[in-house]
């Protein structure tokens, strides 16, 4: 439960910053988390569709970005770094009303880079598979400063 609560705080910070994450993923629900992994859900709505009525690839790419970031957050990180690489394989489609299940894992959190993997599915059907690499050296420094200042109060 501690990992989930921490991730919810990080996600609230992302949303409060406004911008694209808040617009595209305001309905994202964080379901469960443990160290190194998080499960989220998002119901596909009209604004998530492409011109053909399917789930937009840009949305799925954004989900891989945020899923990877939240997986890093589940490692007790407040800052989650900046993207250096993101790839997405679009496996099958999703339509309006579908609930996307987003299973994200932090495969390795190093001193400089973090590697994450994200599986997006609807039921048993895989919709997309993604990998997200982030530069985290400065995030580690920010986290150390945050812990030091919270410990001194």
Structure description:
The chain is an alpha+beta fold. The chain has a single domain, classed as Hotdog Thioesterase (Thiol Ester Dehydrase, Chain A, Roll). It is 35% helix and 35% strand. The chain has four helices and six strands; from the N terminus they run ααββαββββα. The chain has a six-stranded antiparallel sheet. β5 (113-122) and β6 (125-135) form a beta hairpin. The longest helix has 17 residues, at 57-73. The mean pLDDT is 94.
Secondary structure layout:
Blueprint: H1 2-16, H2 19-24, E1 29-34, E2 37-43, H3 57-73, E3 82-90, E4 99-109, E5 113-122, E6 125-135, H4 137-151
Antiparallel strand pairs: 1-2, 2-4, 3-6, 4-5, 5-6
GO molecular function, one term: fatty acyl-CoA hydrolase activity
Organism: Entomortierella chlamydospora
Family: Belongs to the thioesterase PaaI family.
- Could you say which structural class the secondary elements and strand pairing correspond to? alpha+beta
Distance between the termini: 24 Å
**Main sheet record:** 6 strands, antiparallel
Q: Which outline best applies?
A: globular
Overall pLDDT score: 94
**Can you list the strand order of the major beta sheet?**
1-2-4-5-6-3
Radius of gyration: 15 Å
SS field, number of helical segments: 4
- SSE order, as H and E? HHEEHEEEEH
CATH architecture, by name, is: Roll
Number of structurally distinct domains: 1
Examine the coordinates and then state which fold CATH places here, giving the name of the CATH topology.
Answer: Thiol Ester Dehydrase, Chain A
Family: Belongs to the thioesterase PaaI family.
Protein name: Thioesterase domain-containing protein
Domain Thioesterase: 53-124
GO molecular function: fatty acyl-CoA hydrolase activity
């Amino acid at each position: 439960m501690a990992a989930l609560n921490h991730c919810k705080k990080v996600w609230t910070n992302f949303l409060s910053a406004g911008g694209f994450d808040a617009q595209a993923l305001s309905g994202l629900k964080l379901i469960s988390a443990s160290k190194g992994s998080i499960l989220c859900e998002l119901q596909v709505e009209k604004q998530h569709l492409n011109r053909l009525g399917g789930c937009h690839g840009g949305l799925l790419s954004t989900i891989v970005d945020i899923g990877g970031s939240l997986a890093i957050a589940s490692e007790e990180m407040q800052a989650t770094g900046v993207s250096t690489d993101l790839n997405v394989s679009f496996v099958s489609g999703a339509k309006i009303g579908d609930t996307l299940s987003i299973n994200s894992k932090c495969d390795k959190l190093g001193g400089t880079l973090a590697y994450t993997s994200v599986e997006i599915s609807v039921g048993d059907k895989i919709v997309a598979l993604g990998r997200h690499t982030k530069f985290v050296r400065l995030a580690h420094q920010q986290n150390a400063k945050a812990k030091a200042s919270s410990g001194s109060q």
